[in-house]
Design goal:
- By secondary structure, this protein is an alpha+beta fold.
- 26% of the residues lie in helices and 35% in strands.
- The strands form 5 sheets. Strands 1, 3, 18, 19, 20, 21 and 22 form a 7-stranded antiparallel β-sheet that branches. It has a 6-stranded antiparallel β-barrel with strand order 4-13-16-15-14-17.
- The radius of gyration is 43 Å and the shape is rod-shaped.
Length: 379
């Protein structure tokens, strides 16, 4: 007696489950409906303002996007050091300060400068005596009143003193002391450091009172009038570039401000990341461009013949790109595509299938209207 209610209950549960199952969407023929196909009524077709056309073969210019930073040629960067070392007595330089060529930018003092000037003046004072002695021994030797040995010794001392004076004079010129301005009553314990270029101070590595050796760099100066753009280009893109090619560059802070440039040099040494340096020269010098600033660049590479369709024909849905193919009277099928570069209102279709490039007709205007109708239908 207890078994019958249990059997009845089981049958009811099975029937309810069967009723609750969703049946796949079917058309009038009983076949599963393709959700990528949309069929419009005459009124819908008119309101959608749909235009159709075929894929066209067009010249599409691709844009190679690169990045790099502003650099300065080695000849426009100067490291200032002191050939003989010394203590920094004074300087007014600060990073970013402008300096002119020949301008005194620092003063160095040391006792060796005094000693060097003393040695020069002493050697110069003795040269007169040695010259007179040399001439006297020369006359005596010619008259056989003096031996050859004595004459040769006088000549050697005189020549050696000449070499010593020339050597000391060059050392003084090296540290910036003009030998014509020094005398017994005018010996300086300090020397001035002069700027060899007109430009800006990029680094100051010392402070007043510090002793600097000849190997230390006191200041770094930059002449920015010949700055260039150094771009990083991957190995696979190097063959797309050539010397003299034009490009535009811009900073992240001012992407709308374009700077025209031209490729001057293409590096042939690849780094560990498989990229090479490409150096570009700016057409117009812009003083707002500071060395070390990161920039983006866009290069128009060689035109290629490609199949393309109007930009309005492409719709984006769930992160993918689609176009609509005409498959019948008022009937359209959504087909996924991969797109390339866009130019002059047309977008390249990458690797189109054979049926796309033959006689297939696609929606070139009103594609988003079809997408909206399809989504509403699905809901």
């Amino acid at each position: 007696m207890i078994m019958k209610p249990i059997i009845y209950l089981s049958v009811i549960i099975i029937l309810l489950s069967a009723c609750g199952e969703k049946k796949p969407a079917t058309d009038n023929t009983g076949k599963a409906e393709n959700t990528n196909i949309v069929t419009l009524t005459d009124a819908q077709l008119k309101n959608a303002s749909i235009l159709t056309g075929k894929l066209e073969q067009r010249e599409i210019s691709s844009v190679l996007k690169l990045n790099g930073k502003i650099d300065v040629p080695p000849q426009n960067m100067v490291s200032i050091s002191v050939p003989l070392g010394g203590y920094l007595k004074s300087t007014k330089l600060l990073p970013g300060m402008h300096v002119n060529k020949g301008e005194a930018i620092a003063m160095i003092e040391d006792q060796q400068y005094i000693q060097l000037q003393q040695d020069y003046l002493t050697a110069k004072a003795r040269i007169g005596y040695l010259e007179n002695e040399y001439n006297r021994q020369k006359d005596l030797n010619q008259s056989k009143a003096s031996s050859d040995k004595v004459f040769q010794q006088a000549e050697a001392e005189y020549r050696s003193q000449q070499v010593l004076i020339s050597s000391l004079a060059e050392k003084l010129q090296l540290i910036g002391i003009n030998v014509r301005t020094i005398s017994a009553s005018k010996i300086s314990r300090s020397v001035n450091i002069y700027s060899p270029i007109t430009g800006f101070v990029s680094k100051v590595n010392v402070n007043i009172g510090k002793y600097v050796s000849p190997t230390e760099v006191l200041f770094e100066l930059v002449n920015p009038t010949d700055i260039h753009l150094a771009l990083k280009v991957y190995e696979k893109d190097l063959d797309k570039l050539y010397i003299g090619q034009k490009l535009v560059a811009y900073t992240n802070n001012q992407p709308a401000k374009k700077h025209e440039a031209e490729i001057l040099l293409i590096g042939r040494d690849l780094s560990a990341d498989r990229n090479a340096d490409v150096h570009c020269h700016f057409e117009t010098y812009d003083k707002t461009l500071v060395p070390g600033t990161y920039m983006n660049a866009e290069v128009q590479v060689k035109n290629t013949k490609a199949y393309a369709i109007a930009n309005e024909a492409i719709v984006q849905f769930e992160g993918k790109q689609y176009i609509y193919k005409v498959i019948g009277n008022r009937q359209f099928e959504m087909a996924e595509v991969n797109i390339g570069e866009s130019e002059n209102g047309f977008t390249e279709i990458l690797l189109p299938t054979k049926d796309m490039t033959a006689n297939a007709v696609f929606v070139t205007k009103g594609a988003y209207s079809l997408l909206m109708m399809m989504k509403n239908k699905a809901e």
